[in-house]
Specification:
Radius of gyration: 21 Å
Structural class: mainly alpha
Strand content: under 5%
Largest sheet: 2 strands, antiparallel
Distance between the termini: 66 Å
Order of helices and strands: EEHHHHH
Number of strands: 2
Number of helices: 5
């Protein structure tokens, strides 16, 4: 018999269906402009941001962690266009190659 996988212990801490990291991001995106402008209409950004965060976490509870890993690894790769895939190795530019000759 196979061992069942219990998702509960591996699920991130959530409040109303989204992780706490998303709540912090939503609070910053709405609170800081509200403090800067004193315009209450800025707070109306929170519900659409909450719905977007909830849709990200609807099928994958660790959706925000996956997005952050993508940003840390693939999105910041400067050699992606040259090699066709993200690479962590150093990429010398043509200008540096000409100066070595």
């Amino acid at each position: 018999m196979r061992d069942p996988l219990y998702v509960g212990p591996t699920r991130p801490s959530m409040l109303m269906g989204i992780p706490f990291e998303a709540w912090i991001a939503i609070a910053l995106v709405t609170a800081l402009p509200f403090i800067a402008t004193s315009n209450f209409l800025v707070v109306l950004l929170a519900p659409p941001l909450y719905v977007a965060a909830w849709l990200i976490c609807w099928s994958e509870p660790r959706g925000f962690e996956l997005i952050m890993r993508w940003v840390d690894t693939k999105a910041t790769s400067i050699s992606r266009g040259h090699w066709g895939a993200p690479s962590r190795g150093p990429m010398t530019s043509r200008r540096q190659l000409r100066s070595k000759r």
